[in-house]
Amino acid sequence: MNKIEHIGIAVKDLDKAVSIYEQLLNTSCYKTEMVASEYVNTAFFKTGENKIELLQATAEESAIAKFVEKKGEGIHHIAFAVDDILAEMERLKANGFVLLNEVPKKGADNKMVCFVHPKNTNGVLIELCQEIKWT
What we know:
Helix content: 10-25%
Mean pLDDT: 95
Largest sheet: 8 strands, mixed
Distance between the termini: 24 Å
Strand order of the largest sheet: 2-3-4-1-5-8-7-6
Structural class: alpha+beta
Number of strands: 8
Shape: globular
Low-confidence stretches: none
Radius of gyration: 15 Å
Number of helices: 3
């Protein structure tokens, strides 16, 4: 794992949260994106080398909707950048970690992603992110 790619924060109202984080971070949201397969709308902020991803559910079956219902708004996951997501997934499985998806899937911000079950990581949902390279 190379670095923390971003911190994901679950919110109820994306527009309201964007306004709050624009004031807090003293910067504008640089990108919004809908990830239909995950039933979420996202908004991204960059401050220095760090990124924040705000996530709002678009349907009740969304993992974000279930998270907010159970735990309320707040930090949802920490994402790590990796060079080879398939190799990293194999390494983690070989070390006994449970992955929430068997193959990487398309996520927001031009990334292939995979999640590690929080029961293996002291209650923290971990996301692996690999930049999609277009040829």
